[in-house]
Design brief:
71% of the residues lie in helices and 0% in strands. By secondary structure, it is mainly α. Helix 1 packs across helix 2, helix 6 runs antiparallel to helix 9 and helix 6 packs antiparallel against helix 11.
């Protein structure tokens, strides 16, 4: 049997992944099955399974496309290392996350965030793919950096709130998830999406500033 050239294999894998993304943009990721991807790709079942043994391997491939980039790390680090006030750092950081969401919506919609949610709600399933995932994603770095910043500001008394740090982080996560699942958002032009997300980030920032001021 002739050996498959690496470039041919990579091209086929890319085609399958793009088919998977199209399916994920039409239906919730938790409902997506390998059969959906096979049909969408136009390949035979054996052709798809030659490159991906199961749905989790496809999802892991998509998640690994979001590996932490140096530019994102530098942007986040610069905010927290700046001499701005904690409130200004909070606002700047939320807008970085907003920009990241806008970028995600205009490329692959909310697929990445839906996958993160899928695995976070199923620890056993996450454990089975953990070893295949790249160490840190852009989103994970942003979340971790913000959690550390928030804890430090609450501890030193710069932020005052009756809520636990975890509750504040959960509130932000719920809000961000809502941004991603707005009806027909991904169908709008990129500049419209940017304006809409920016306005909604401003609302979140104002609410958090009041919350963390003890109001």
């Amino acid at each position: 049997m002739p050996k498959v050239k690496p470039e041919h294999a990579e091209r086929k894998k890319a085609e399958i992944v793009e088919a998977a993304k199209r399916v994920c943009n039409r239906k919730p990721v938790y409902e997506v099955a390998m059969r959906d991807i096979v049909l969408e790709s136009g390949m035979s079942q054996g052709g798809v399974y030659k490159y991906f043994a199961n749905i989790d391997e496809v999802f892991v491939f998509i998640l690994n496309e979001e590996t932490l980039t140096s530019s994102m790390k530098e942007k986040a680090d610069a905010i927290f290392q700046s001499k701005e006030t904690p409130v200004k750092k909070l606002d700047n950081f939320l807008h970085v996350i907003g920009q990241h969401i806008t970028s995600s919506i205009t490329t692959d919609g909310s697929i990445y965030y839906e996958l993160i949610s899928l695995y976070s709600k199923d620890p056993q399933r996450l454990e089975t793919v953990k070893g295949q995932l790249n160490e840190v994603s852009n989103l994970q770095y942003l979340q971790t950096s913000f959690a550390i910043f928030l804890a430090e500001q609450i501890e030193n008394g710069m932020f005052k709130t009756t809520m636990q740090k975890e509750e504040v982080l959960s509130l932000i996560e719920v809000y961000m998830t809502g941004l991603l699942h707005q009806p027909d958002l991904s169908l709008k032009a990129s500049d419209e999406i940017n304006v809409q997300i920016s306005k909604q980030i401003n609302v979140l920032s104002t609410a958090l500033q009041k919350l963390l001021a003890g109001e």
